[in-house]
Amino acid sequence: MGKFENMWQCQTANCGYIYDPERGDKKGKIPKGTRFEDLPEDWKCPLCGVGKAFFKPLVGAAA
Q1: 60 vs 22 pLDDT, higher one
Q2: Confidence (pLDDT) at 2
Q3: Which domains does the chain have, with CATH numbers?
Q4: Under a CB-based contact definition with an 8 Å cutoff, are residues 5 and 11 in contact?
Q5: Residue 59: which pLDDT band, with cuts at 50, 70 and 90?
Q6: Which of 17, 30, 33, 41 is disulfide-compatible with 10, CB 3.0–4.6 A?
Q7: Phi first, then psi: what are they for 61, rounded to 5°?
Q8: Residue 22 in 3-state DSSP?
Q9: How far apart (Å, rounded) are the C-alpha atoms in residues 46 and 44?
Q10: How far, in Å, CA of 60 to CA of 63, rounded?
Q11: What is the DSSP secondary-structure string of 30-49?
Q12: Are 9 and 58 in contact (CB under 8 A)?
């Protein structure tokens, strides 16, 4: 698992998917090492299908 400050979490109810750049998104064909900021604008959460606007950084999470 990557560093928390590089991860982003989906904020929709009943989802909570965490995008980890060290893992990428296999379903969305996003390679490992892709920062959240560099994801395509049309990228969707692989669990619930919402866009990037519904994600918030995990800054300040327990390390």
Answers
A1: 22
A2: 62
A3: 6-55 (2.20.28.10)
A4: no
A5: confident
A6: 17
A7: -70, 160
A8: coil
A9: 6
A10: 8
A11: BPTT--GGGS-TT-B-TTT-
A12: yes
Neighbours of 25 (CB within 10 A): 19
Q: Any bridge partners for residue 51, and if so which? A: 44
Q: Look up residue 44 and give its two tokens.
A: 């969707």
Tokens of 8: 């982003």
Q: Amino acid identity, residue 29? A: K
Name the one residue in this structure whose structure tokens are 């669990």: 47
Q: At CA 14, angle to CA 1 and CA 49, rounded to 5?
A: 75
Q: Give the pLDDT confidence of 6-17 residue by residue, as tens digits.
A: 899 999 999 999
Number of residues that make up the chain: 63
Tokens describing residue 58: 């995990």
In a 3-state reduction of DSSP, which class is residue 4? Answer: helix
